């Protein structure tokens, strides 16, 4: 187990820079998730930790040792690839044993370690099968088994669940989390799925276009997104945004007005963006009028797509809604839970 | 009338339509063109060749059945036995070197090296030059007086005192032919193996790298097993092409000196056409068939779908 420190790391492919100075500290035993939209540089950063890409500038340290010039196999990390990269010509057993065989471990140790990993992952009945004879989820587990037997300092995962169907994904999510709680190995995990990030991480690193937007615990990012990008990225369905001005103690837009958060600083007169999460709307007699367009009851809650003046808004209510499309409901945000962002810079104001 | 009482009425199909619905007829119709082509262009010449091998036909005289007489006399024929031996040796020596060099080139080209496409084009060159043309070039290269090799070795580098007589003595001629065949055959091996290498996912090499494999171990445990299926196919074809080689040898040495470089194919032609012993020539050609069948069978078993490969179950 080890810490991972990423300090002002930059990466350029030829003349195009894709990472513009990234700083991340991963504590010993921590489960850190890199999340961000496609192409933001998550895989590149992970591959730099693994040593599969060289580091253009800055430095990466694993367990206190700077590894910029350390060969991948000396870094004591194990990686699970998105497409698993299982050796097709080796059985499950040989796939898991390969690194140990290369390290010239005694056969007894190899079979013991492989047996234990297979046990943890429920792969024991499949040890003599070839990868092509396995289902997607089983292949995923073999890829994890291959990482586990190494007993590395750091696990790296690159979107390991993206090839699985929705149900299996939820199951494997729990399994990976459970595995981490048992092994307590430092883990860096890449995904573009913010639900995966929210449910699994100790700490989330939100990346966007080669920059880190915010680092924090899942609920921290949910409660206090540092900027517009994080606010829009974390949470599902996404936060509602309204563009307007702060005037005389209220937020005004399109002729409507919404209450300001209690801790509103001196933003009077400023152009701001006002954010409300769908689940933070309440039905309220003194709220503002919203015209219902679509109702989506899911049983536990009801999602309502509506319009306030000309701005579309999504609400999620715990209570059952009886309004019909075309009718109006009166809704109000919980002022303690609304977010204000600067219109120009996107930075959080409250 | 409503939908519940409506019954679709069909006019009974006419005779032609019924005929084309009749499966055996359809199969025959569809197979006929392919079978016809095979019969005319493959089965007939092959059959005729085999038939001739059992006759004493000569050019201008259709022979009569003589049973195994041609083969009996070949068994005593030093020139023929020598040709069999040299064909096997030629095939083995050339194939080994072609694969060693071809694989090496393919591995080189599979890396990011500068001027990759130009090098690839150069490597393909021997393949696009007609064989007879390159044979003539080799004929010059191996000329006792004008050979560029001799010139370089003697007059430029001063490594030797005398010009080499490449084609004058049996062993020199044999090795010269093998070298020409290697030059001619490398592109095929290199390009097909390169195609094979490119089907191996780079992620596997990265996984092996992280698993701690050295470059040699990556070659040994990842590249080799994954390349095996394609290697076996290329090997089969290469062996078949080399074993049946004719053009290079016939153009460069015509089997000489003193019949020491005859391959079975050149000897068959020599006896059958210039020597006008059609029956005997055919018998030599037919004698190649067991070797070819053996080579094909061997590679068939080597090729047999490996358990790990995608595809229908084969246990
Ligand atoms: N070998 C390369 N050469 C040039 N550009 C590259 C290379 N690899 C990645 N890039 C660029 O770097 C950027 C980041 O790529 P990366 O693969 O890290 O994205 P990602 O965040 O993992 O996206 P995804 O979620 O789609 O996997 C992309 O714009 C990509 O085009
Ligand atoms: Mg990626």
TrEMBL record, chain A:
InterPro entries reported in the protein's UniProt record: AAA+_ATPase, ABC_transporter-like_ATP-bd, ABC_transporter-like_CS, ABC_transpr_MalK-like, ABC_transpr_MalK/UgpC-like, Mo/tungstate-bd_C_term_dom, NA-bd_OB-fold, OB_MalK-like
NCBIfam families: PRK11650.1
Protein name per Swiss-Prot or TrEMBL: Sn-glycerol-3-phosphate ABC transporter ATP-binding protein UgpC
Domain ABC transporter: 4-234
An MF annotation (GO) of this entry: ABC-type transporter activity
Entry GO CC: ATP-binding cassette (ABC) transporter complex, substrate-binding subunit-containing
Gene3D superfamilies per UniProt: 2.40.50.100, Nucleic acid-binding proteins, P-loop containing nucleotide triphosphate hydrolases
Coiled coil ranges: none
Record Pfam families: ABC_tran, OB_MalK
UniProt record similarity statement: Belongs to the ABC transporter superfamily.
Entry keyword Ribonucleoprotein: no
Top-level taxon of origin: Bacteria
GO biological process: carbohydrate transport
Keyword entries, A-Z: ATP-binding, Nucleotide-binding, Transport
Automatic annotation (TrEMBL), chain B:
Pfam families: BPD_transp_1
Topology in the lipid bilayer: Multi-pass membrane protein
Residue spans crossing the bilayer: 25-54, 83-109, 121-142, 185-205, 226-244, 282-303
PROSITE patterns on file: ABC_TM1
GO biological process, alphabetically ordered: transmembrane transport
Annotated GO CC locations: plasma membrane
InterPro entries to which the protein is assigned, alphabetical: MetI-like, MetI-like_sf
Domain of life: Bacteria
Localisation: Cell membrane
Keyword Cell membrane attached: yes
Keywords noted in UniProt: Cell membrane, Membrane, Transmembrane, Transmembrane helix, Transport
ABC transmembrane type-1 domain location: 84-299
Similarity section: Belongs to the binding-protein-dependent transport system permease family.
Protein name as annotated: Sugar ABC transporter permease
Originating species: Limobrevibacterium gyesilva
């Amino acid at each position: 187990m080890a810490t991972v420190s990423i300090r002002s790391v930059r990466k350029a492919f030829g003349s195009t820079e894709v990472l513009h100075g990234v700083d991340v500290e991963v504590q010993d035993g921590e489960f850190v998730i890199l999340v961000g939209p496609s192409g933001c540089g998550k895989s590149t950063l992970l591959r730099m930790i693994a040593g599969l890409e060289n580091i253009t500038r800055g430095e990466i340290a694993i367990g206190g040792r700077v590894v910029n010039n350390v060969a991948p196999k000396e870094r004591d990390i194990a990686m699970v690839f998105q497409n698993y990269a299982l050796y097709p010509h080796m059985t499950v057993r040989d796939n898991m044993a390969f690194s140990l065989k290369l390290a010239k471990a005694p056969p007894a140790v190899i079979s013991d370690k492989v047996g234990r990993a297979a046990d943890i992952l429920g792969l024991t009945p499949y040890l003599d099968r070839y990868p092509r004879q396995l289902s997607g989820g089983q292949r995923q587990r073999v890829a994890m088994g291959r990482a586990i037997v190494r007993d590395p300092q750091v696990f790296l995962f690159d979107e390991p669940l993206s090839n699985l169907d929705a149900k299996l994904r939820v199951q494997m999510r729990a399994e990976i989390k459970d595995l981490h709680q048992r092994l307590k190995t430092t883990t860096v995990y890449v995904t573009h799925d913010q639900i995966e990030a929210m449910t699994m991480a100790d700490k989330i690193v939100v990346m966007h276009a080669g920059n880190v937007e915010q680092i924090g615990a899942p609920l921290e990012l949910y409660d206090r997104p540092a900027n517009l990008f994080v606010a829009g990225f974390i949470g599902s369905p996404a936060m509602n945004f309204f563009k307007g001005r702060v005037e005389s103690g209220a937020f005004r837009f399109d002729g409507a007005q919404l209450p300001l958060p209690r801790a509103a600083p001196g933003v009077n007169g400023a152009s701001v963006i006002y954010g409300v999460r769908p689940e933070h709307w309440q039905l309220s007699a003194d709220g503002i009028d919203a015209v219902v367009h679509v109702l989506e009851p899911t049983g536990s809650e009801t999602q309502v797509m509506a319009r306030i003046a000309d701005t579309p808004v999504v609400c999620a209510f715990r209570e059952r809604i009886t309004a019909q499309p075309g009718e109006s409901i009166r809704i109000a945000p919980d002022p303690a839970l609304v977010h204000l962002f600067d219109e120009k810079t996107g930075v959080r104001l409250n | 009338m409503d939908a519940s009482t409506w019954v679709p009425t069909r006019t009974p199909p006419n005779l032609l339509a019924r005929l084309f619905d009749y499966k055996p007829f359809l199969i025959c119709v569809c197979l006929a063109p392919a079978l016809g082509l095979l019969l005319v262009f493959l089965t007939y010449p092959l059959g005729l060749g085999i038939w001739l091998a059992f006759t004493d036909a000569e050019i201008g005289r259709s022979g009569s059945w003589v049973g195994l007489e041609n083969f009996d006399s070949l068994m005593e024929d030093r020139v023929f036995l020598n040709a069999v031996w040299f064909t096997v040796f030629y095939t083995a020596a050339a194939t080994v070197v072609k694969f060693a060099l071809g694989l090496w080139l393919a591995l080189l080209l599979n890396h990011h090296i500068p001027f990759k496409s130009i090098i690839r084009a150069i490597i393909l060159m021997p393949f696009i030059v007609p064989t007879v043309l390159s044979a003539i070039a080799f004929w010059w290269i191996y000329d006792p007086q004008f050979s560029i090799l001799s010139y370089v070795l003697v007059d430029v580098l001063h490594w030797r005192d005398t010009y080499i007589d490449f084609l004058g003595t049996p062993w020199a001629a044999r090795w010269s032919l093998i070298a020409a065949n290697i030059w001619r055959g490398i592109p095929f091996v290199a390009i097909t193996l390169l195609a094979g290498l490119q089907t191996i996912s780079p992620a596997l090499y990265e996984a092996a790298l992280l698993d701690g494999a050295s470059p040699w171990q990556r070659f040994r445990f990842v590249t080799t097993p994954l390349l095996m299926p394609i290697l076996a196919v290329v090997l089969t074809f290469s062996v078949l092409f080399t074993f049946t080689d004719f053009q290079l040898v016939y153009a460069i040495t015509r089997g000489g000196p003193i019949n020491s470089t005859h391959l079975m194919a050149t000897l068959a032609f020599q006896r059958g056409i210039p020597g006008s012993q059609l029956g005997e020539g055919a018998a030599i050609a037919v004698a190649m068939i067991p070797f070819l069948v053996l080579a094909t069978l061997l590679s068939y078993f080597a090729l047999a779908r490996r358990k790990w490969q995608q595809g229908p179950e084969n246990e």
